[in-house]
């Protein structure tokens, strides 16, 4: 099976029902995408499929063939991705940092569809991304900052 | 962990400060590649390594789990060393006695003690390294060291205009004897200490390159998950792995003390293989555990005399007044850090390498050595970034390390044992369920004349190597079972505090702020009930009873002033407050709440902390905000329940952490102080639940005496 990840083609020998998360982490070696729940409850594994946010832990490989997969390692390939990373740094958002790959992937997807998101837009786009350290307020500020940049 | 400082010092008689920085760790030579000049790393001391190309590496023996300790340690060391933060890199220190904590004869991260316990040690380590570099320059220049100054990574001889970068001096500095009495800079010369500098570990956390325990990839490494007992204490009767072995990618199935391990080429295959296992279990001590039955039992026991922990005055003195009583119940709680547990173990000819995110290096090393059949020195712990800790990765029983070593032992390749979220939620080592019963007698002025507090709760360290250090030999009760109750700060003449030591098959552990989380909820709710009964404002009532507690007064005044205590709020909103001392610091919090669809909603939390000197005020404030989030998760929703021995929650669906839309605005104010630094990571936790519960009482007239608040039906008081 061939996967297009961050603009590179990867040939994988994997079961079609394997979730994309484990293929990325254990087979391809892209460990920036994190495992948090395995059930699309926390958003730590968020990636982009053709630019849309998706939870890699419940997305089987059979569903991603022929689609462009973007992970946190590839997000800086876009100007928007770079802008969001810069906003995260400017706001000093991460604490433990484990959820932040997923947070950034969700934020980039939000800003792509809503370049000037309201707080309500942020609520609905980001509520599926859990953080146990309590970085939510700075995540919100960083999204606004990226939108203003 | 919460180290009982007094007990540890008494028991272990450890060297104060553990300042053995003269012991240099083994030097590392590093060739930079064919054709390039050889770069040599010199260990100037246990905390500072300088390469001949000028690169400065600071070794940090504390685990970075989000609290910002890499940044805080770097600030202190770099300030003394006279290097810019942008010129240092951080490496997790190996396990060595030189890194033992100030308060315990082990290397660990917990008890909000990293800065508090290491501040002076680090200042001296940085000053010592600076002194050695000056000494090396003095020899190079042939001048007296007093003529030299360390400036931004170089030593300067102003008189002659000569200067040498640290990289050129490090090799010689590493050979000089360490100064016996290194002189840290006076506070007036600090450039980094006390400043809200940005964290130094952010870049890797926004581009996916930060390496957590789960991100370790060793050559040939396999992945394992373990089928563990469905109830605590159960053991394997027999198992059938036929179907599991047929799953594509499964490499091996083996029994370990905690269950049946499935080893595979990838995590998914291991999980699939485990699902195909057939395991039969023999029930053990936890077969019939019911958290409801525990609650009923604890409530009954709280009405009987327990072991007296603290008393003053004369509880038998008669006095008329108004009698009050209240019972507060809190549940088992899982830590549920975002990164589920994992531990990679690689055996080699000369020992064993362990890559994991742990808070408990010395303890885990000893446990791993025992399981592996090696000497502790043969076990090398490589501390990775922790995707949250909150106490779960500081286990005296070393559960996840011990198990991972057992899984990998005898297997011909490195193995990372991975926990799923369900494994984490089911896995025990919870904050203990507790029951707190308080009674008081209020005198004619409304102030308490008598105060009695009885807690029923499990010990955390019983049966572990820590029991001897943590438990009072006279009573067998440990500090975690009464902290926050035994030294409540209010001026009450007659006080009695007692504990009933509960024993359960459910394994428990320290959870951010440990015993303070439940006693803080009880004490700060009850004092609010006393204020209400006395017909007094909760703030004025507390201030009057805390006249002798300057730190409490300072944070109460600061937090309430910033929150606008007593000023009007939107209709349907109300405020509540709480103040609690823990880990050497005091925090007051004012919560503003309303009901939305009958459910509590916290809109704003204003906090004030007194933590002595704030080495990084930005991170101090962020840690309090973090504690608010963590404590609010628990206060609103957090609960682990058991029925017929089985844990009834399994993932974030039924154990829901706070989400972005539930996060209140948080403002944190720091009381300015030049006192020695005290704890920061945990003290923001205890006041949150009572502040919210007190606010909900102010709004509705309903007292929530059980957590989580989801159990209480709040009805808005008629206007």
Poorly predicted ranges of chain A: none
CATH class term of the largest domain in chain A: Alpha Beta
Strand order of the largest sheet of chain A: 2-1-5-3-4
Whole-number mean pLDDT of chain A: 97
CATH-defined topology of the largest domain in chain A: Ubiquitin-like (UB roll)
Structural class of chain B: alpha+beta
Give me the count of strands of chain B.
Answer: 28
Could you give the order of strands across the largest sheet of chain B? 11-12-9-19-16-17-18
The biggest sheet of chain A, with number of strands, parallel, antiparallel or mixed sense and barrel status, is: 5 strands, mixed
C-alpha Rg of chain A (nearest Å): 15 Å
Our estimate of the beta-strand percent of chain B is 15-25%
Succession of helices and strands of chain A: EEHEEEHHHH
Helix-strand category of chain A: alpha+beta
Based on the structure given, which CATH architecture of the largest domain in chain B is correct? 2-Layer Sandwich
Largest contact between protein chains? A-B, 57 and 65 residues
CATH class of the largest domain in chain B: Alpha Beta
Description:
The complex is a heterodimer of chains A (149) and B (719). Chain A has helices at residues 20-28, 79-90, 100-113, 119-126, 136-148; strands at 2-5, 8-11, 46-49, 52-55, 68-70. Chain A has 149 residues and is of the alpha+beta class. Chain A folds into 2 domains: 2-74, Beta-grasp domain (Ubiquitin-like (UB roll)); 76-148, DNA polymerase, domain 1, CATH 1.10.150.120. In chain A, strand 3 (46-49) and strand 4 form a beta hairpin. The longest helix of chain A has 14 residues, at 100-113. Chain A is globular, with a radius of gyration of 15 Å. Chain A starts with a strand and ends with a helix. Chain B is an alpha+beta fold and 719 residues long. Chain B folds into 3 domains: 5-198, 2-Layer Sandwich (Aldehyde Oxidoreductase, domain 4), CATH 3.30.365; 213-284 and 342-418, Aldehyde oxidase/xanthine dehydrogenase, molybdopterin binding domain (Aldehyde Oxidoreductase, domain 4, 2-Layer Sandwich); 292-317 and 430-711, Aldehyde oxidase/xanthine dehydrogenase, molybdopterin binding domain (Aldehyde Oxidoreductase, domain 4). Helices cover 27% and strands 24% of the residues of chain B. Chain B is built from 17 helices and 28 strands. In chain B, helix 3 (114-141) crosses helix 4 (166-173) and helix 13 (515-534) runs parallel beside helix 17. Chain B is globular, with a radius of gyration of 27 Å. At the A-B interface, helix 1, helix 2, helix 3, helix 4 and helix 5 of A face helix 5, helix 7 and helix 16 of B.
